[in-house]
Each structure stands twice: as structure tokens, then as C-alpha cells.
């Protein structure tokens, strides 16, 4: 079985965005806020939105189960306040739940959290609990910068985040560290902000004792870990300079990287540098890059091909990357999928 | 000849930092600002500060000339106003000039610019001109985020920066895109902010027509290009998705990466993915990482060893990386060093 741990519902019916636009237009006057019930999407619309996209790609590429979450750039925690963020998160998460209910063999849910800049993450606990306990979700996407590119909230290692981590540990769910769109003109979302956030989060945990406080907390750093594996020597050296423990001991029980790296040399490096136990297969489909690489004739984001092409990784390690690590990190998956 | 295009004067005598601390302490009341002349550093102190550090490392590693600039984290453009930034830049640049004068075969200067958040970069023209015309410097370090981690100034592709670019082109000097320290607790300087800035700057130029406006403008993106070479497929794909020209045509006449990547697999990837014409040898010494890699027995930042170890790069390409590209990009070097 092949589990893709990083898929977003980027193909949702247009009604979803239209509802969000109404919500945004009504932000100044709550009387104009659309009702949740104003969003009408039929099961057939959901089936249509997935059939030619995620389901087709799963079949074509030979992957089985996608750990599926709302469109990351759509979260936009910097737009509106915590109340608006909550309604928007509920709507997006309910829609993911409908996808997972319609196609239980193909999708398992991960939730968007109702974060808002300057609002304590404890505020997200209720929605996390609802998604995990009531909707059967197996994890959450955690935005390390709800400001959308100005980085005004405390680092992930600050006690600010601890109540949410306590709940994550209690529920046995990991977080993928994933920013949303950027409202800072310096940062292109998928080309800079996403990768910067990955790199930033890794360095935050490297310099802290977060995992001493939460030995069971698990973070997935997406997009192949941002710049981290490419600069693995830099990080090993920085940890030494700071008299930190070796990275393996310091964080590799808790930090995992996905394989969303869109060319062979990048995936080669990732699998060479990072232990197989810490890599989860993912493609980010349908996602950041949608073109076909003219040099290979295949989609840039068909990351399974890159892994398949590597001969020096053992079958056992590939099995870990494609399935076993996902079951370990998203431990609620064990009970659900087989 | 081997040219290291990225060295900082991180070992300056303590008097420099003491002067800066006085300047910072006096920021609230200009009457307390120390005079420039209050800084007393003798030639012997400078010799001592270099002898056991940069000069020793050059000898040990077999490199010849270092393109030398003030300590990057010391620039701290976010501290004080533009007037304070100017005095501090003059002092740091004058000190680099003294190093280059004492050891003309070993060092050639690159200047710090008197940037300040919210102040037009045109304000830096006079100091750039002084350093190039009077002190014989061959380039500048340009901070894409003078705010120190809040990214409040416009992107590098905004017309905000154009007057400075016009002067750079007129003077025939390139800029290394290099942030300074971070005052944002989210960003560790050398482990996150530096690499993020590299990645960010690359994506800014990818999405703009900056090099149509300035065909002769040259940027060096340090630290191996941040996350960029590792995600080269992502960038090629993003450019295609956005109907931009191929990267080679779009920016590889103007953008260059250094080799400050501190392990063999990272340097392997860099040299595999990026054309040899776009890579400049560098070590960032004495710099970000000072430890010895216990796995190899050599310093992490001894980047020459990684390049030497690669057998599949031709002697001609290595010659480009070690010398010819530096002479091309820092074109004023031609006249000076041989």
C-alpha cells in the first residue's frame, strides 16, 4: 500500500471559494456574514471534483491512500478574526470529511485549524478535537505564521503553543507544519513562503527543548524539509557549535520530512542524507506545480517515480517511506486503513 | 588561483564591537554618540586578528584570494536610523579597506551598505561609490530585509531599489544578497534567516522582469542558493506554470550561487543541478559553522574539499568555479588581482 501523506483539496467546487469571498466581503459588518448553510455542494459535485484530479492521479501513479486536507493557501489565517477563521475552518474540514466518507479507501482527513494572528493556539483545541473524535481525522496542519508572512506570533517552541501540543499528544495526532498564503509582497507562497517556513520550523526545534517537554509530539516538515536536507551539514555543525545533542538524538524521534521535491537529484539527496525512518512519501498533489517536466516527459510532482528510480535504497526502506512511516507518524491511521 | 567570494571579517578586534555598543547605547541621545575617531585599532591588531584565522585558513586549505566584507550579522540595519547606519558602515568598510591594504594579495573588499528600514536604497549610493572608487572595492552586500526579519520593505524587484541598481551597473559591481541578524524570534540568523532570504530573493527575481530592466545587473545568492538548487524542479515547474521563460534564459545571465554548503551530498547536488557558469567558490569563513565534522575529520566549512572530491566535474568547470566566474561576476577584480 502506498500512502501519500500530503494532498490538498485544491479542486473543490467553485461554490467554496464563492462562499469564502462572501465571508471576506462581509468581514467589516458581521450582519453581512454568510450563513454556513448558504454553502450548497452536492455529493455529485464532490465526486466530479475528485474524479478527474486526485482519484485519476492516484490510479495513474499507483498510489492508494492520500492523507487529505483543505487547500493550504486557502486557510489564510491572516484574513478576518478568530471567529471568521473558525467558521471557515469548520466548512473546509466538513468538506474534507465528505470526501473521505465518499471515498474511504482513497482519503483520510487532516484538518485545518482556526488559527488567527495574535490569538492563542489553545483556541484551536475544540476544532481539532471535533475533527479527530467526530470526523475521524488523523492529524492537523499547523501554521507557524498565521500573519501570512510577517511572522508576528511566537516561535513554535514557545509555551504559547503548548496547550495545543498537549491536546495533540492526548489525541495521538501529528501536525504537518504548513503555512498558508502570503500577504507580504516579499514572499511568493509556493516558491518562497512555504519553503522558508519549513526551514524556520526546523531551526526552531533544533534550538529548543520542545521534544523534551513533549516526547510524543510529532511534526512533519513538508516540501522535503525546505532547505534543511540540502544544508544538513550546516545544521549538524550549528548544533555542534551550540553544544546541542546530535540531531538524531535531538529531534529525529519527532521530526519527519515528506518527499515533495520535484526532481531526481533533490529526492536522491533527501534519501541519502535523511534516515529512511524519517521520510514519508508525499506528492502535494494536486498542488504547487502542475506542469510536465519537458526533460522527463512526466509531471514534476510525480514524486513516486523519483523514489522508484533509486536503486540503492532497500525494499524495506522504500516500504517504510511509502507506508510504514505514515502509519507510525499518523498513528490513528493504523485503526482505519489497511 | 582560487578565489573565495564569501568571507566576512568576523574576527575583528574587540574594539570594533565596543564602539558599536557605545553607538547603540547613544542612539537615544545623539549627544552621546561616539566619534568615529574614538575607534582605535592598530595595524598590528588587524594583523593579529587575521593571522590565526582567515590567513591561516587560506594557507591550510590552499585558497588564495578572499572577497572580504564586514561581518554580515554585524550590519544590523534594523538598529538605529540611517544616519547611525551610515557611520557604522563607513567604519566597517574602512576596516575592510585596511585589511585589503595590509594584505593586498589575500583580500579584496566588498562593502556593507548603510541601509535602514523604510529608507530608500538610493541613500546608499554615496557610500557604494566611495568604497568602489576610493577604496577599490569590487562589490557590495545588499540586505533584502533591512528590518531584520519582519520583511517590511519592498521586494528586490520593486522600483524602490532601482536607483541603487543603476549605480551598481554604472560602477560594474555585483551585489551579494545577504541579510543580517534577525530581531524576529522566529528566525535563527545563520540557520533560518540567511537561507530564507536566499530562497526569497531567487523567487522574487523569477517572478519579475528585473533583468530585462537591468541586463547587466548581477546578484550572487549565497549559502548555495538557500533552498533553490535542492528544489530546482519546483522552480522550473513554477516558472512553466506561470508562463515565464526557462530559468536559464530568465535569470542565469544575472544570478549566481556560491558553494557555502557544508556537506558532500549538498555540494554534489549544487554542481549537478546548476550550470558551472553560475557557481562561485566560497566558504563563508570564518563564519557560520566553526566545528569539525566528526564523520570526516574536517571542518564543515572547508568547502574546497567537497569540490575537489567530485570526479565528474571537468577541470575546466572547476577552474570556472574556483576562479573564472568570480572574475566575470566581480568584474573589477580583473584589473586588481592576478
What are the main properties of this structure?
homodimer, 338 residues, alpha/beta, eight-stranded parallel β-sheet, two-stranded antiparallel sheet, 10 strands, 44% helix, 12% strand, globular
Written account of the structure:
2 copies of one chain form a homodimer. In chain A, strand 4 (139-142), helix 6 (162-171) and strand 5 form a beta-alpha-beta unit. By secondary structure, chain A is of the alpha/beta class. Chain A is built from 14 helices and 10 strands. The longest helix of chain A is centred in the first third of the chain and has 21 residues, at 82-102. In chain A, helix 5 runs parallel beside helix 6. Chain A is 44% helix and 12% strand. The mean pLDDT of chain A is 97. The interface between A and B is large, with 60 and 60 residues.
Amino acid at each position: 500500500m502506498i500512502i501519500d501523506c500530503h494532498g490538498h483539496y485544491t479542486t473543490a467546487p467553485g461554490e467554496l471559494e464563492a462562499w469564502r469571498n462572501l465571508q471576506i466581503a462581509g468581514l467589516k459588518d458581521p450582519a453581512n456574514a454568510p450563513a454556513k448553510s448558504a454553502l450548497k455542494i452536492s455529493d455529485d459535485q464532490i465526486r466530479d471534483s475528485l474524479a478527474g484530479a486526485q482519484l485519476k492521479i492516484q490510479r495513474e501513479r499507483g498510489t492508494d491512500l492520500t492523507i487529505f486536507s483543505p487547500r493550504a493557501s486557502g486557510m489564510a489565517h491572516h484574513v478576518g478574526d478568530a471567529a471568521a477563521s473558525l467558521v471557515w475552518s469548520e466548512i473546509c474540514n466538513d468538506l474534507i470529511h465528505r470526501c473521505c466518507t465518499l471515498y474511504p479507501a482513497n482519503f483520510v482527513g487532516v484538518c485545518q485549524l482556526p488559527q488567527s494572528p495574535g490569538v492563542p493556539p489553545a483556541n484551536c483545541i475544540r476544532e481539532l478535537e471535533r475533527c479527530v473524535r467526530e470526523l475521524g481525522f488523523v492529524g492537523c496542519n499547523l501554521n507557524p505564521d498565521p500573519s501570512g508572512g510577517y511572522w508576528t506570533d511566537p516561535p513554535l517552541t514557545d509555551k504559547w503553543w503548548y496547550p495545543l501540543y498537549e491536546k495533540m499528544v492526548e489525541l495521538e495526532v501529528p501536525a504537518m507544519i504548513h503555512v498558508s498564503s502570503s500577504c507580504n509582497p516579499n514572499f511568493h507562497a509556493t516558491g518562497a513562503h512555504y519553503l522558508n517556513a519549513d526551514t524556520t520550523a526546523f531551526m526552531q526545534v533544533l534550538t529548543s527543548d520542545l521534544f523534551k517537554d513533549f516526547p510524543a509530539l510529532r511534526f512533519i516538515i513538508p516540501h522535503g524539509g525546505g532547505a534543511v536536507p540540502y544544508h544538513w551539514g550546516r545544521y549538524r555543525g550549528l548544533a555542534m557549535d551550540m553544544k546541542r545533542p546530535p540531531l538524531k538524538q535531538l529531534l529525529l524521534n519527532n521530526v519527519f520530512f515528506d518527499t515533495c521535491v520535484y526532481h531526481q537529484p533533490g529526492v536522491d539527496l533527501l534519501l541519502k542524507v535523511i534516515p529512511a525512518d524519517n521520510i514519508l512519501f508525499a506528492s502535494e498533489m494536486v498542488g504547487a506545480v502542475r506542469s510536465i517536466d519537458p526533460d522527463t516527459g512526466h509531471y514534476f510532482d510525480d514524486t513516486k517515480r523519483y523514489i522508484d528510480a533509486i536503486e540503492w535504497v532497500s525494499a524495506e526502506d522504500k516500504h517504510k517511506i511509502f507506508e510504514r512511516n505514515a502509519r507510525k507518524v499518523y498513528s490513528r491511521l493504523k485503526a482505519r486503513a489497511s
